[in-house]
Write a structure and sequence with these properties.
alpha/beta; 2-enoyl-CoA Hydratase, Chain A, domain 1; 7-stranded mixed β-sheet; 15 helices; globular
Length: 439
């Protein structure tokens, strides 16, 4: 006769691990319910904890790999739990957060584990662009798991964690300095937010959930005080964004990737806004273009308005850049801006030269500061090639209909807030726009 275990006995079989502690720290106090708690493989405790609950009052589904159980090995039971998280999130229009900390696959399952990883990838891809996905890397995240994490809309990694496709020590070229580290993932643009430790990574995920829309039909809100900082012509792009956004609302993405580009979420009029700035008057590299394009695509699929501050001499022009296929990423940037149906507002705060002006030129409304310079090429180059001074003043651009107005820097916040308010009812599509592909 079968022996029936008591609830107390079953509860004792589930470890009080870091995985469950992270879920408890992530969710509002006493708000989450563990899903499939006793689901196991061959009678063993699962290497994944899954849950649903609330974060800042918003519904969220999450899973956390449990490195204390067979090194967090992914097996059929773990895959089933993770897939169920995605399915429930899609049905209920709620974000998915995954906490990654695993030594890899359960080799006892042989080649079948590849199908299990494949099923998780398909589940993630199915909800891409429907609900936000956040990957939080707190330990080792390698191989197929690294691909799954990188498929998320936002990757947050704790310093000291590892994120790589192939173990650096197994590579033919040996382990190059930094290879496989979270710091390198941030530098390469795989990780958008680098946290000092696992606790901060969890806190960053909570902060993101509080400002992102719950799904592609929702609206992101941010409760932050109004900003009284003055906007001046001396400010660079990131400073302008911080001055326009409500106090304390800025969350920067990709700080270590693409140094001439700045991307961040912030709040205007109490709503979440995506800020993009060509942060210096430097030319944009392939990395800068890829960083901006992915960020704008992310904003677009969730209908987050995009405010772009333009100050650039254009795209990097060198033989090395051409040999590296830089035009690919430049074209992707232009394509993403042109096809994005979310609200788009441009502010030319400095230089807007050459193809870069055209690439960004798909906003609903565009403005320039009175000291801005708009030209088909660098004016110095114009003297050489055309033998004459190029007209660069923004008033000429305004008379040609290239921009909607010329404003004083001091009026920037009011102008941007006003335009966002006027365009808030913009609606070109209510259905899913596209999967939020990575590139």
């Amino acid at each position: 006769m079968a022996v029936t275990k008591s609830l107390a006995e079953m509860e004792q079989s589930v470890p009080d691990s870091d995985a469950r502690k992270r879920l408890a720290a992530f969710y509002d106090e006493d708000s989450f319910t563990e899903l499939d708690k006793f689901l196991s493989a061959d009678g063993e405790v699962s290497s994944v904890a899954a849950a649903c609950g609330s974060v800042d009052g918003l519904s969220v589904y999450a899973f956390a790999q449990d490195v204390s159980v067979k090194g967090g090995a992914v097996n059929k039971a773990a895959a089933l739990k993770i897939k169920r998280v995605y399915e429930l999130a899609a049905k209920n229009g709620a974000p998915v957060v995954g906490f990654f900390d695993s030594k890899g696959a359960d080799i006892n399952e042989g080649m079948a584990v590849l199908a299990e990883y494949g099923d998780i990838m398909k589940a993630s891809a199915k909800v891409s662009g429907v609900v936000p996905q956040i990957a939080v890397v707190t330990g080792v995240c390698a191989g197929c798991a690294a691909m799954i994490a990188a498929m998320a809309d936002v990757v947050i990694a704790a310093e000291g964690s590892e994120l790589f496709l192939t173990a650096p020590f197994n590579n033919a070229d040996g382990k190059l300095e930094g290879a496989g580290s979270a710091a390198n993932a941030a530098k390469a643009g795989v990780c958008q937010i680098l946290a000092k430790d696992a606790a901060e990574a969890v806190a960053k995920a909570k902060q993101l959930i509080s400002v992102l829309p719950e799904n592609n039909l929702g609206v992101g809100y941010c409760d932050a005080p109004e900003n009284d900082a003055a906007v001046s012509a001396a400010m660079k792009g990131s400073e302008i964004a911080a001055a326009v956004a409500q106090k304390g609302s800025i969350i920067e993405f990709g700080e270590k990737f693409g140094s001439a580009a700045y991307t961040a979420l912030g709040a205007v009029n109490g709503n979440t806004v995506a800020f993009v700035a060509t942060d210096k008057a430097e030319k944009l590299t392939s990395a800068d273009c890829a960083k901006i394009a992915r960020f704008v695509q992310f904003a677009d699929v969730f209908s987050i308005p995009v405010v772009t501050v333009v100050n650039t001499e254009g795209f990097e022009g060198s033989s090395a850049a051409e040999l590296g296929g830089s035009v690919r990423d430049c074209a992707k940037l232009a394509q993403i801006y042109a096809t994005a149906t979310t609200v788009k507002v441009n502010l030319i705060s400095g230089k807007a030269f050459g193809a870069a002006f055209a690439a960004f030129d798909s906003a609903d409304m565009s403005f320039a500061w009175e000291n801005a310079q708009i030209a088909p090429m660098n004016p110095e180059a114009g003297k050489v090639f055309m033998g004459e001074e190029l007209t660069t003043d923004p008033f000429t651009a305004a008379t040609l209909g290239m921009i909607d107005g010329v404003i004083d820097p001091a009026d920037t916040r009011e102008t941007v807030a006003g335009v966002l308010g006027m365009c808030s009812s913009k609606n070109e599509s209510l259905a899913r726009k596209r999967a939020n592909y990575t590139f």
